[in-house]
């Protein structure tokens, strides 16, 4: 049975910061950010956007392809959870009016959560032929003002509809996994800012990549030439470039992979880190920007979640895949640039980690769905059209 990615959609909020301006404000050479780290812009996430609204904003485009009688599973992979108990998938379930017969849940393992959701969905469909699964990888990468990780911040969501006979790519059966408890990156429950041992996490990423590649190559007798492209988890795009060099060190020259690697990092250069979604932002970027790929081409995807779990899996493009894509260049190009001062004030205006009521700033409402605030410790979600009406109309009740 062929199972895989039937549709894939990306959402990122309407505001961005130019990292060269950030570099100047922080007293850093801009080349460090654009060349050394490999970023150009980063998404700026207003407090009216969280993993629920961004996930729903990404998934709304897939709604017309969801067959309510076949949708059996909705999973959100995230490390920016908004509740320690209730799954964000349920808020999204309500916003999208999804069928009550679908299981809804949230998966956590740092940036690996999106891949965990995707591969669970694949196995679910193998066990339940004919079903569909909706998976969402949504995150806000937040390290703190003037922190070492600040330049790699970003955010957004990727929604994937997984089904039999997919229109974009079949996920192949064999994968290689490597798990082990390490302390490279974590986020205590009382803060929304990640704690990272930056250099150590970079080293561990490469070490985990080595483990899974060597295992995959050994088991499947694989070599880089078997693949049209390698896609990497991209906490910042230079990280992917380091992984490509590591592959070369372990095997053979990978010149044939370089041009497509460049295509795969373009959207991440403009958005920044999307944690669970980053690998899939890379996939979307490659598929939408490269016009030399063809049906039957195989892609290798490397997923890494700090803490840490790594998995290498592969996918095969299907005939006519390009017709099933949405093309997101406009979403990125039509965003509004904010100054460093404005970014800092948006950054500081967050839902408090305390039980007081709170209202988000309507000035930065974007997308189809918004968080309007928190009342009595309950988050209030709405369609933007309703949230922007001065007096709630009957249609919005
Ligand atoms: N021009 C061009 N390149 C420059 C430069 C300049 N003026 N100044 C520095 N660089 C290069 C450095 O040589 C280095 O390149 P290299 O990695 O190829 O050696 C790169 O820029 C980064 O510089 P460095 O001083 O090592 O970075 P840093 O101390 O600011 O930390 C991170 C970088 C990524 C570790 C930091 O942003 C971080 O902690 N990020 C969050 C954690 C993370 O993303 N982990 C990834 C694994 S999940």
UniProtKB/TrEMBL annotation:
Query: What are the BP-aspect GO terms?
Result: acetyl-CoA metabolic process
Domain Hydroxymethylglutaryl-coenzyme A synthase N-terminal per the UniProt entry, residue ranges:
3-164
Top-level taxon of origin: Bacteria
List the active-site residues: 79, 111, 233
Swiss-Prot/TrEMBL keywords: Transferase
The segment(s) forming the Hydroxymethylglutaryl-coenzyme A synthase C-terminal domain are 257-347
Q: Which residues bind (3S)-3-hydroxy-3-methylglutaryl-CoA?
A: 29, 143, 242, 273
List positions binding substrate.
148
One GO MF term = hydroxymethylglutaryl-CoA synthase activity
Glycoprotein as a keyword of this entry, yes or no, is no
Q: Which PANTHER family match?
A: 3-HYDROXY-3-METHYLGLUTARYL COENZYME A SYNTHASE (PTHR43323), HYDROXYMETHYLGLUTARYL-COA SYNTHASE (PTHR43323:SF2)
Family membership: Belongs to the thiolase-like superfamily. HMG-CoA synthase family.
Q: What NCBIfam families does the entry give?
A: HMG-CoA-S_prok (TIGR01835)
Q: What protein is this chain from?
A: Hydroxymethylglutaryl-CoA synthase
Q: Which organism is it from?
A: Alloscardovia omnicolens F0580
For this protein's source organism, the top of the classification is:
Bacteria, Bacillati, Actinomycetota, Actinomycetes, Bifidobacteriales
